[in-house]
Amino acid sequence: MDVTITDLTKTFGGQPALDAVNLAFGGGMLGLLGPNGAGKTTLMRLLTGVLRPTSGRVVVGGHDLAERSGRTAVKRMLGYLPQHLELYPDLTAREFLDYIGLLKGMADRRVRRARAAELLEEVGMSAAAGRRLGGLSGGMRRRVGIAQALMGDPRLIVVDEPTAGLDPEERMRFRSLLAGLGERRTVLLSTHILDDVAQTCPDVAVLAAGRVVYHGPTSGLTGAAEGRTYQVDTAGPQPAGDLTIANAVAIAGGMRYRVVAETAPPDGLPVAPVLEDGYAAVMRDARGRRR
Ligand SMILES: Nc1ncnc2c1ncn2[C@@H]1O[C@H](COP(=O)(O)OP(=O)(O)OP(=O)(O)O)[C@@H](O)[C@H]1O
Predict the structure, then answer these.
(1) Position 46 confidence tier, pLDDT thresholds 50, 70, 90
(2) What is the CA 79 to chain-centroid distance, rounded?
(3) How close is the Cα of 37 to the center of ligand 1, in Å?
(4) Which residues does UniProt assign to the signal peptide (predicted)?
(5) Does domain 2-219 have CATH number 3.40.50.300?
(6) What is the predicted ipTM?
(7) Is the Cβ–Cβ distance between 71 and 65 less than 8 Å?
(8) Domain boundaries, the chain
(9) Which residue among 72, 102, 178, 230 has its CA within the 20 to 30 Å range from the CA of 118?
């Protein structure tokens, strides 16, 4: 399912949340990264037709979202798991999926029920299908969230921070679930967790202040910090000056920082970058451009 976003701008009260964004992707998983307020949720809401753009175009699978017929067609082929999905606490997982199927235009009750059962199986929730949603754990709710996004067998799936707040084991399970979906569908995964992207997304787009500052292979994002990543171990204050701190961990007797800088900081040991260094590097470059 090809998605083409052209010169997409969305302003709120005159302030651009998205500023002339161009992005084309299709097939497999695309990670969407960016700091708070970068415009990720706005982009996803425009893509799902929940919001209308101020200007620019979104075409999904050949359907233009500017047209009513396009929006209707896209709704049928799209699954959306928003950051905060409203679940009805008194419905069981099975009843909830049945209801969502009805909303998505699946008129045949038997087909709906069969699909709900299939999806609950796929997300590992068959045993809890009859439990009320209000009594489920955070991870189980997320799984029901993914299942509802998959009712109607969408070819494009948009998920907003699906692993936030999950414990490490649930997160791992959820990641492999998403990666499995990406084998057969187009999945846009927005997250703050770089590890989720490193583990599941061959490609990634990075938004900063409403603009795309990187789009390409995830390995290429790591490469953005090549030759300018340093490790600084110190018992004193954190490294300062013209550098960006990508990571800080406590070590015996002090702290270990990874920094991105054009020139080596005092006591800086050059190291091979990892994804979070690459992310810090493109954010650093983006800030430099905005100055
Ligand atoms: N409905 C709205 N009304 C006014 N401003 C909005 C609205 N939605 C988003 N914004 C603003 O647009 C900008 C982008 O917000 P958005 O939620 O898209 O960012 P985000 O990258 O998803 O952030 P986060 O990672 O915190 O979820 C922010 O400055 C936000 O305050």
Answers:
(1) very high
(2) 14
(3) 5
(4) none
(5) yes
(6) 0.96
(7) yes
(8) 2-219, 222-290
(9) 72
